[in-house]
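>> received
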Amino acid sequence: MKSTTEPAPLAPGTILWEIAGDVRLLLSLPAALVLQVAHPAVGAGVDDHSVFRTDPWGRAERSLESLQLWVYGGERAIEEGRRLRRLHKTISGTDSRGRSYHALTPAYYAWVHATAYPVFLRAARYLSRPLSPEDERRLYDELLQLGAILGINERDMPGTPGEFWPYFDTMIQEELESTAVVQELLDPRRPITPPPGSGTSTRLLWPLLRRPLGRLHVFVTVGLLPPAARDRLGVPWTPRDERRLRRFGAVVRTLVPLLPERLRYLPTARAARAATVDVAPGPSRD
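>> returned
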């Protein structure tokens, strides 16, 4: 029998339903990841236990598939939340400050989830369109709902956007640091192999493509970090960089809405949208 205390899955008409499956998510997720691993405990967990170095494409694909299930999986989202908690039960160690950590320590687990809010807002500002104050509140409420699906207790997250920003500022000033994983993720020279299954032409061109793609990846990642976080991590950002990011964002805002459905939305989101064609869609985030 289903428990009456289980959180409700996200549904069509929510803001997350509109933005979490848009291909522009691929541009914003790396900034959230950098914020996450800038926390010493989270960074140590990834450094000690993740396969992001040996299997970067596989690690990214599995994480993306999991995230898509949280939003578009319906009842499967609840089970995915349970699976993630089981997966993280064995992840523990000592961080760079000599503190013991466990992946499911409430403050650390909540921080990983909390990073989505500022990055979603910045991505909307640059890559689609800024959210209204009302939609910012709606998005935060939806993220709290998503946190419940992931097993984050209500008491471990700020209850409102107004409470979130002092919490976020405190975390930046008191916790975040340029961990070893942050430095790797923000290194445009980090060696990455071609995606699995790449064709012959991609493999042949990869030595030429990897460097400019790496620079673009790091540039967008740094640009979507909140300025206070960039300052804390010692990552430079100039007025010229800001102008370049705004021009890049204008191109993305123009081109992505013109893409056909099969290219604009990630596979899980596309399937969920197709299955709910009779449900009125939420407001466009173009």
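>> The chain has 15 helices and two strands.
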